[in-house]
Design brief:
3-stranded antiparallel beta sheet, single chain, zinc-finger, about 35% helix, 4 helices, about 170 residues, Znf_RING_CS, alpha+beta, disordered N terminus, transferase
Length: about 170
Amino acid sequence: MQVPCKEEPASGRYMQVPCKEEPASEQYMQVPCKEEPASEQYMQVPDQEKRRPSWMLYWSTTVHSVLECRVCEDVFGLQGDKVPRLLYCGHTVCHACLLRLPLRDNVVQCPFDRQPTPTGNSGVWGLKKNFALLELLERLQYTQEKSTLFLTADLLEKERQASHYT
């Protein structure tokens, strides 16, 4: 998966980093270059990235892409028009994108492989939600809230200690 440079998204500059810790690995991921490389020289991986295993960078990028609708590239939601819905072929599309797809004879075609999915009389509202993905979203949201809570509590404790000493 390629991730564009943050400074110049259209620059197309990337470097390859092995996905696995074994030096003989032939699988690579693309990591954005932060500076213009000099002719044939390779970019150095920043110190903070050296401390983080390459699989972790790949995992975080993969998880983020799994949480997005592949049609509109918006993050799926727990409710509303961004709820992930399953098609018969196994692909997942957000509710809003399904509403935009043509519905013929109560059948919607997958935007990726054109496989038909019957919707019944209730239209796309009758399609099953992707509950595995919804559970993942809930767990990630809970983890984020929990880490924010701990971070806030830690900062408050540090401020309290700092004000106690002054």
